[in-house]
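>> received
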Amino acid sequence: MTNKFDITKVNGKATVIDIGHSYPNFSSFAGAAGHPDAVNRTELINNGEDVNLLVRGRHPDDNGVLYVVATKDGRKAIFGCRGLSIKYEMPEITYDEAIKNAEKAIEVLRQAAYAEGYAQGKFDAEMERVATVAPKGPKELPQEKRDLIIEQAKQDVKRLLGESRIRMVPNLCGELESFYPNCTYPRDEVEFVINREKRTVVALIKYVAGKVWAKGIAKCAPDDCFNKHIGKVIALHRALGLEVPGKYLNVPQPKKVREGDKIKFIAPDHTFDGRIETVCGVDEDGAIWTKESSGWVGEGDCEIIDDSKGDDRE
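>> returned
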């Protein structure tokens, strides 16, 4: 018979933060989890109490994450993930399984270290090429370096969100909590909130059920060009409690106007001064055309304020 609750034995610690998310009468889940004594109890578990995580599963109606928990004195209960602040959690395994997993983890880490070292080596080599070979002239060097850093930012976000390991992340209360978005039944997900007007990117780490439990914020400096990919990688590092690599904090400014860029007119004597428009074309003579206006503008009469391009969902 298929386990409709997706029951998994776990080891972990948590603190009860909202007893309103308990399930005192969910006997079918308690029975399937092997803890029938977790329901219909008179001894309640209250907010602020520390508990051990025993079992993790899914609610068949809304797919929310459920846990069977127990206090030190043996009181048990069923809680949804919104009712707990989880300090850490890991699957329950045997000694032999732990040895196999450790060997596999070592191999994965070895391969990952090689891959990351190889990728960083390629990046460093390309940076050296950009710094030493300049067939297009010195004005092109910052643009090439910016392009490379943006591409690596995209790959870093993809890598961090694709990790299969459990990462311990500080939550909004400053306590460490397990984060694993990439598993068979993920408990967590990351949402990026991009605000081009405020020039900010916020990375929200939340339970699949909806509650935000960690976040990181990236804010573009007033004189810098906004790029959502740079913002996403900075915000995600901060949400995960990781140090932001320096290359993402010191990205060269763009020097070349391209289709899709957001530009701001900076011609004081022009009626369009301060207006923001989207580039739809640039000709060989450097004339810039925008979607919003019928005329053209020269490179010296505008500045690039956003070179993200594309949809914010990308």
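>> Residues 95-132 form the longest helix (38 residues).
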